Amino acid sequence: MSLIQCTNLTKEYSKGDNIIRPLDDLNLTVSEGTFLALMGPSGSGKTTLLNLIAGIDQPTSGSLMIDNHEISHYSRSKLTAWRSKYIGYIFQLYNLVPVLTAYENVELPLLLHKMSRKDRHAKVASALELVDIADRHSHYPRQLSGGQEQRVAIARAIVTDPKIIVADEPTGDLDKTSANNIMNLLVQLNKELNKTILMVTHDPLTSEYASLTLHLDKGRLVEKEVHA
Ligand SMILES: Nc1ncnc2c1ncn2[C@@H]1O[C@H](COP(=O)(O)OP(=O)(O)OP(=O)(O)O)[C@@H](O)[C@H]1O
Ligand SMILES: [Mg+2]
């Protein structure tokens, strides 16, 4: 079943007389449970596409259907509420809040949802457990290694049980061992929890963890590789 459907998706920015078009009439269908890698040169529109699908930004034209919702028509506030239910976002530089502990960072997205303190605790504990960082729950980001910070960030992305995880170069700042650990964790989320994952990477070896790689160039899809 198609979970994400982009039709003639276009994003433009105007600077004076100049129009920049990071996404140009892009068509893309992603089925539920896909692990998709997006590759392409710098400036080809990868982050722009992730941000539109994550409801962080809105398209200039075209349609963006996610789970049968046409999110391109949503108001900013409706989009924020929608995003907190559907999307978990993982960044290259983790983006943890430095003055909060690992536990409090993971708890943060749940504060947008109505639930008891006890339920919240159970969800945070199980997310920390899943990424194998529960023993560091009271540590602050500065007391963690990069790989550990990224695991906390993944716990934060999945604690609300979103259908879609978007990850922008999630291993871009990590050594090889930590990067492999993070990729294995993403594969586990995809295979065991059926999360649909959209990941940007510059590294062909990293893209091989995905089931499908799409290449973007100048805001258009130019090539598709299906992995065994
Ligand atoms: N807010 C903005 N205002 C103007 N131009 C923008 C804005 N955001 C992105 N762009 C432009 O859109 C194009 C695509 O940017 P994008 O960040 O999607 O590229 P990318 O493929 O993620 O590149 P990288 O691999 O370097 O991260 C670039 O030319 C960029 O300068
Ligand atoms: Mg980018």
Structural account:
With 228 residues, this protein is α/β, with parallel strands linked by helices. It has a domain at 2-93 and 162-226: Rossmann fold (3-Layer(aba) Sandwich), CATH 3.40.50.300. It has seven helices and ten strands. It has helices at 46-53, 76-86, 102-107, 117-130, 146-158, 176-193, 204-207, and strands at 2-15, 18-31, 35-39, 61-66, 69-70, 87-90, 164-168, 196-200, 212-217, 220-226. The strands form two sheets. The chain has a six-stranded mixed sheet with strand order 6-7-8-3-9-10. Strands 2-1-4-5 form a four-stranded antiparallel sheet, covered by helices on one side. A hairpin with a 2-residue loop joins strand 1 and strand 2 (18-31). The two termini are 20 Å apart. The model has no long low-confidence stretch (mean pLDDT 95). It binds adenosine-5'-triphosphate and magnesium ion. Adenosine-5'-triphosphate is lined by residues 13, 20, 22, 40, 42-48. Magnesium ion (MG) binds next to helix 1.
